[in-house]
Amino acid sequence: MEERIRQRAVQRYLMGEKPKAIYTDFNRSKKWFFKWLKRYQSGQKDWYRDQSKAPRSSPKRIPEVEKQSIIGVRKRLENERFSQIGVSAIKWELSKSGHNLPSDRTINRILKREGLVKKNSIRSQGT
User: Fold this and answer.
1) Distance between CA atoms of 19 and 13, rounded to whole angstroms?
2) In angstroms, rounded to a whole number, what is the distance separating the alpha carbons of residues 40 and 70?
3) What is the H or E stretch that residue 27 is in?
4) For 42-83, what is each residue's pLDDT tens digit?
5) Cβ neighbours of residue 126 under 8 Å, at least 6 residues apart?
6) Are residues 114 and 79 in the same domain?
7) Which residue among 1, 65, 87, 110 has its CA within the 20 to 30 Å range from the CA of 18?
8) Nearest alpha carbon to residue 86 among 70, 65, 101, 66
């Protein structure tokens, strides 16, 4: 519906109608009208469609290689008897292998997303 309105607005403009009459008829703003006119003039095939509002890049996103190394270290530590498996232990292991060290919060976020954060069964039983 909205896409059709955009197309009709530009079509009316191309037929010689004044912009103010067009955006007033459609109960839209001047900014709205000129945004869609500019998109039409760009020559894109689907100029009337909404474009994603998501950021094009995430400069602070941790690279997949580092994420996999964090997960790998955690799983390896879980399989070692009597080893610590928390953030400090993971950072220690990563520093020994020369990796960049993300923040504690980032490591916790990655572990949580992967389902690797578990409640301590000894403490949760109580005495």
Assistant:
1) 6
2) 47
3) none
4) 999 999 999 888 888 887 788 888 899 999 999 999 899 888
5) none
6) yes
7) 1
8) 70
Specify if 127 maps to a domain: no
Which two tokens mark 7? 């197309």
Q: What is the pTM of this model?
A: 0.51
Report d(CA 62, CA 102) in Å as an integer. 8
Amino acid identity of residue 5, one-letter, is: I
Cβ-contact 46, 52 below 8 angstroms: no
User: What's the total number of domains in the chain?
Assistant: 2
SS (H, E, C) 61-127: CCCHHHHHHHHHHHHHHHHCCCCCCCHHHHHHHHHHCCCCCCCHHHHHHHHHHCCCCCCCHHHHHCC
